[in-house]
Amino acid sequence: MNSLRLDSLALEAVEQEGIEGARWLGAFPFSADRPGGTVTDTTDYTVVYNELDPGTKIGTHRDSVDELVYVIAGTVEATVEGETTATATGELVVAPADVPHSVRNTGGETARLLGFFPSGDVESTFETEPAPYD
Hints:
Elements: E1 12-15, E2 23-30, E3 46-52, E4 57-63, E5 67-73, E6 75-80, E7 83-88, E8 92-95, E9 101-105, E10 111-117, E11 124-126, E12 131-132
Antiparallel strand pairs: 1-2, 1-12, 2-3, 3-10, 4-9, 4-11, 5-8, 5-10, 6-7, 6-9
């Protein structure tokens, strides 16, 4: 069995230049070919872990497969295909395949999110491609 502690992941700091507040930390702990401390190679699913400081966001993007976003901690606004909803700890948001979506931390603490994809082959297309930052 593969297991891990989310607080021990090697998180990568990324941002989307030119998009105010589009900056977050992320890792792909369960995936076949993604950065950030992968603990298992699988072609059946992908999991992404993200942390957003207050006021920051993951900018608008589309994924080639459905994404389930689970809020582990914090309060966020999730926008899926132009519809925005407040989402908090313990809640789940569904972003269907190829539908534009984003997440913004609207709370006063770090938001922690898990994204689940039902495929090991996920293509994400951002309006501005994320790049590492220091």
